[in-house]
Specification:
By secondary structure, the protein is of the alpha/beta class. The chain folds into two domains: 136 residues, Response regulator (Rossmann fold, 3-Layer(aba) Sandwich), CATH 3.40.50.2300; 197 residues, Methylesterase CheB, C-terminal domain (Rossmann fold, 3-Layer(aba) Sandwich). 38% of the residues lie in helices and 21% in strands. It has 13 helices and 14 strands. The strands form three sheets. A seven-stranded parallel β-sheet has the order 8-9-7-6-12-13-14, with helices on both faces. Strand 3, helix 3 and strand 4 form a beta-alpha-beta unit. Helix 11 packs parallel to helix 12. The chain is elongated and about 75 Å long. The protein starts with 6 loop residues before the first strand and ends with a helix. The relative contact order is 0.11. One of its GO terms (cellular component) is cytoplasm.
């Protein structure tokens, strides 16, 4: 591979001196560009989301969790080329092998050889090798699907008039391994199945009608069937596992299933690990439930007026203070994924 432009590199090391030495060394290498440095996994998590680096250099010893733990986290939630940089790796062959098995593309020793060699003078070569390593080799085999969704994150979406097109736009941003997603779209029962089949044909995740007892899994979108029962999410048998629950009951806000019923259940069961999204639709269904989600620590997003077919449900939620971020439809899908990525990386082993 020929590097046509500098590789954007994020340097993660708890030592201020080491971060400065690495940045100074890489500044002399035209093939790479340091776009940020982080002293802790928490800082690194935020910068990965904000800066989207091409390659990460990762120290082995850091506060709150070691580099191998953070490497495992990255490989499952945000696969990318990683170069392990540590004094330990030179003298502990087992750590090198473990890092490579977990998905690291290369490693580099902090110990500077004798003979007047500049510190970290060969790190640029390791970074370029990491970038040249096919991502399928580096990380894809380390992705792990667990019940509940990626690290327990669950996305809940509510929509009504105009929602068929809006949901299509949002879900087209999702990958095959997106967090588990549950949807209430107001529509008659006879159209629910064809709607789910249509979505399943045109988006990458699997889309299906929610059934009683379905365990929420990554890469799957669960659509509530119209007319008969409300869709809620309850805790499963194992920690971090969530399950679809279909509940008989009167209409809520004139609707069955009701967006409020779904959102209230997510607030209670998933809490801060949920993302709530309210899209175009008439009246106010979902507003109170979304507020409950926000109070529970969930991330909440609402569609803006300009892109809504009917600015009813999003408006009610926004005016109630339930919407943390209001966005045009074209930006919502990616914003959801960015928030899920950030939330997933917050959940340490």
């Amino acid at each position: 591979m020929t590097v046509l432009k500098p590789l954007n590199v994020l340097v993660v090391d708890d030592s201020l001196t080491t971060r400065a030495l690495i940045a100074a060394s890489l500044k002399r290498d035209a093939r790479v560009r340091v776009i940020g440095t982080a002293a802790t996994p928490l800082e690194a998590r935020d910068l990965i989301v904000q800066l989207n680096p091409d390659v990460l250099t990762l120290d082995f010893e850091m506060p709150s969790m070691n580099g191998l733990q953070f490497l495992e986290k990255i490989m499952r939630l945000r696969p990318m080329p990683v170069v392990m940089v540590s004094g330990h790796l030179a003298s502990h062959k087992g750590l090198v092998e473990q890092a490579l098995r977990m998905g690291a593309a290369d490693w580099y020793s902090k110990i500077t050889p004798e003979g007047g060699v500049e510190p970290f003078s060969g790190l640029g070569d390791a970074i370029v090798r990491a970038a040249e390593t096919p991502l399928s080799v580096v990380a894809t085999s380390h992705n792990i699907d667990i019940p509940g969704s990626k690290e327990g994150v669950v996305i809940g979406i509510g929509a009504s008039t105009g929602g068929v097109e809006a949901l299509t736009d949002v879900l087209e941003h999702f990958s095959e391994s997106c967090p588990a997603t549950v949807i209430v779209q107001h529509m008659p029962k006879q159209f629910s199945e064809s709607f789910a089949r249509r979505l399943n044909r045109i988006v990458r995740p699997e889309v299906r009608l929610a059934e009683e007892g379905d365990i929420l899994r990554p890469g799957t979108v669960y659509v509530a069937s119209g007319g008969e029962r409300h869709l809620r999410v309850r805790a499963g048998a194992r920690q971090g596992e969530y399950v679809c629950q279909l509940v008989a009951g009167p209409p809520v806000n004139g609707h069955r299933p009701s967006v409020d019923e779904l959102f209230y259940s997510l607030a209670k069961t998933v809490g801060k690990h949920a993302v709530g999204v309210i899209l175009t639709g008439m009246e106010c269904d979902g507003a109170q439930g979304l507020l409950a989600m926000r109070h529970a620590g969930a991330l909440t997003i609402g569609q803006d007026r300009a892109s809504s077919v009917i600015y009813g449900m999003p408006r009610a939620a926004f005016e109630l203070g339930a919407v943390e971020q209001q966005l045009p439809l074209t930006e919502i899908g990616q914003a959801i994924l960015n928030r899920c990525e950030r939330r997933s990386l917050e959940t340490y082993p």
